[in-house]
Amino acid sequence: MYESPEMYSLAQDGQRGSVAANTNWVGNAEGVANAIGYANAAVATLAGVAVVVLAVVGAVFTVK
User: Fold this and answer.
1) What is the pLDDT of residue 36?
2) Mutual orientation of helices 29-63 and 15-24 as an angle, nearest 10°?
3) Digit-coded pLDDT (tens) for 52-63
4) Count of the separate structural domains present in the chain
5) Of 7, 5, 63, 60, which Cα lies nearest the Cα of 38?
6) CA quadruple 55, 61, 62, 64: dihedral positive or negative?
7) Is the pTM of this model over 0.85?
């Protein structure tokens, strides 16, 4: 699979990267797949943070 330098920079740009992937690579299935991947990674990260926050809050209330 061909990896362009733009793909690496987009991956590092996170959310902006998925928008850029959709606009720069219209009709490119690989670009769309990368955009979906970035979006899924962002959602997974947010979900992970939410789980940690809930666990900490739960622990605090349990101690009291």
Assistant:
1) 75
2) 160
3) 778 877 777 776
4) 1
5) 7
6) positive
7) no
